[in-house]
Amino acid sequence: MATNPGPLKGLRILDMTRILAGPTCTQMFGDLGADIIKIERPGVGDDTRKWGPPYVKDSDGNDTSESAYYLCANRNKRSLTVDITKEEGQKLIWKLVGKCDVLIENYKVGGLKKYGLDYAAIKTEFPELIYCSISGFGQSGPKSHLPGYDFMIQAMGGIMSVTGEPDGSPMKVGVGIADVMCGMYAAVSILAAIRHRDQGGQGQYIDLALLDSQTAWLINSGSNYLTSREDQHRLGNAHPNIVPYQSFQTSDSFFVLAIGNDAQFRKFCKFAEASELPDDSRFKTNSDRVKNRNILVALITDLTQQHTTQYWLEGLAKRQVPCGPVNTIKEVFDDPQIQHREMEISMPHPLSGNGNVTLIGSPLKMSATPVTYRHAPPTLGQHTDEILEELLGMDEDERRELAMKKVV
Fold first, then answer.
1. Among the options 58, 179, 198, 280, which is catalytic?
2. Are 276 and 296 in contact (CB under 8 A)?
3. Has 15 been annotated as catalytic?
4. Are residue 167 and residue 301 in the same domain, yes or no?
5. Whose CA, among 69, 116, 245, 325, lies 20 to 30 Å from 288?
């Protein structure tokens, strides 16, 4: 296990988030060396702990309290249980804020105000604190009071309308991508705020909305609409602006063809023994191919169905024509490239029957300050005593009293 302290060593984040968007953000900070204090409700914890099966198995093969979903976004954190509905719990949070650089939360809008833990209350005593709120719709606007979940946001944010087969129903992305991308935007904004503060500025408030970030990553589909004022319709696996750029059926399965320019199209046609297609006026340029999409796709499908997927992948790769297999998740982790890049890692875990849990590795590959894997996703309240003693100087009697009052 790597011991390099990471580029964010010395940065401490009070993580009052749960589910996926906030935890995704803070896990990245943890991988980069920050100290992440995960605040959880005593006896309950992050909602995703119960989002299973599958769960980590103990030595007898029975389910433990840790779901695979929870494991995906909570590495490199320390868990501290605090009941913020109690006055003593609120005081603990205030003390911890004084030891942290960043507070990130995803309570409903106004949810922390009644506990005196909102930014307006905290900034008076801690003006250098960076306070990031993640919510479904943001802190302002006619829908700000509504709860927001990934599936809802994918629907409301337009991505479902352009996902799925043309004659099928709207389709969500198969993972919680709206949450994940909001976590990414949160991480970027927090790093920018840290840079601003470290250059002589103060702390600041960051207002991140799932719907805003979902709208932002409509990317070219959103831009297409803003330019043409025409709605994009579902195209299945096809691309709205590039042809051929989709999956094609072969004699035994499917593969993806991702042709991005005319030269690549010509190479493909030569290998497919259809050298006449690039000279056809309907297909000479990408614009021509987009306009005549249906005709060309039918012609290419007739060609690809004549051979196996392996035939196309091997032959086109040799000619540097972008293509790839449609892998299952098992096939992804069996891929030698994924294995070489260490995208599957193992970490010691106290509840696992074999002593370890297997996790997805970080994609961040940094030459001087690589990511580190220091803490497996913590069990509920695993580090409560450690944090209270280390950061707040509480002795055993003080900690025991808080536990008896069910504050921690």
1. 179
2. no
3. no
4. no
5. 325
